[in-house]
Amino acid sequence: MRNVLPSILRICPALLLAMGAAAADVAIDLAQSTVRFAGTSTFHDFTGTAKLVSGALHLDPAAASGSVEADAASMTTADEGRDERMHNFVMDVAAFPRVRFELTGWKPTADGGEATGTWTMKGVGKPVSFPVKLAGGHATCSIPLNIRDWGIRTPRLVFITVGDIVTVDLDLVIAKAP
Question: Is 86 helix (H, G, I), strand (E, B) or coil?
């Protein structure tokens, strides 16, 4: 029974929220969670990762709050030249070190919920809404973002042009907050 209890405690917040039950404070395991992003360019698609630096959520249909932040300087695509241009020119990480989602709304659904809030990158905050799946101690979502909406010029290098849409995939390992 002791071995089963931690699993049940990890899953309970997700189950309660999916059923529309009372609010829950959710802690995010920053070390186990992942942030991935993907985009397209003229010659090939690219993928990358970033590190989460903070995160806690209050999933309450009446008063949702909380945030998730990633370190913009940790964004990497496994191509040093591309990463340097992304950090210095595209994202300007010296001036804007964080990418942040601030939760302002939560609507429970059968398999998770609809999150609403403000996505801020490169100093610009814009409203976003996206579905979140809750299962097995994970909150997962895929968020397509048009980088031009945040004042980010479409990166170009000679004949290579990056597409306007970058998709951010979050896999947050969650547990009921202490």
Answer: helix
Q: Going by C-beta distance under 8 Å and a sequence separation of 6 or more, which residues neighbour residue 127? A: 116, 117, 118, 119
DSSP structural state of residue 30: T
CB-side exposure of 101: number of CA atoms within 13 Å? 22
Does an H or E element contain 82, and which?
A: helix 80-85
Nearest one of 104, 143, 106, 102 to 125, comparing CA atoms = 102
Give this prediction's pTM: 0.84
Q: Tokens representing 148? A: 């031009």
Which whole number is the average pLDDT over 107-118? Answer: 96
Phi, psi of 50 (to 5 degrees): -145, 160
pLDDT in tens, 148-162: 999 887 766 666 777
Domains of the chain: 4-176 (2.40.128.110)
Handedness of CA 97, 98, 99, 102 (dihedral sign): negative
- Going by C-alpha positions, the residue among 107, 101, 158, 135 that lies closest to residue 10 is 135
> In this predicted model, what pLDDT tens digit does every residue of 22-78 receive, in sequence order?
588 999 999 999 999 999 887 788 999 999 999 999 999 999 999 999 999 999 998
